[in-house]
Amino acid sequence: MPAGKLREVALMLKAIHAQEDLRAAQRKVAEVVSRLHSMRLGKAAELVETAVPETLAYYAFPEEHWRRIRTNNPLARIMREIRRRTRVVGAFPDGNSALNLAAARLRHIAGTRWSTKRYLNMKLLKQRNALTA
Known about the structure:
Number of helices: 7
Shape: flat
Radius of gyration: 20 Å
Strand content: under 5%
Number of strands: 0
Helix content: over 70%
């Protein structure tokens, strides 16, 4: 697939998950599937039609949690930090040196306040369950 088409498909998938609610996301899925068929990307359209609804499960949770559920920002942040530090070093004499650097960073994270910070506010879920019960 040419880079231009690949970029266009990626933008369409992002647009699905940028919708304001589940109904809008489902409508967008139908639009994307139609567009993929028109681009003669039948297998991609079939994959979007069958697999994407599973990725919309975060809409069942309170809106305040959506961003945190649909992304893996904490993991991405750790990986970005390790990547930044390995680039500074440049070349490592062996694999153990790189592993030691990554492990040291992970130990630092585990030993600081950042590792104990709550990612989701569970009170919102408890309130929601109390209202529906």
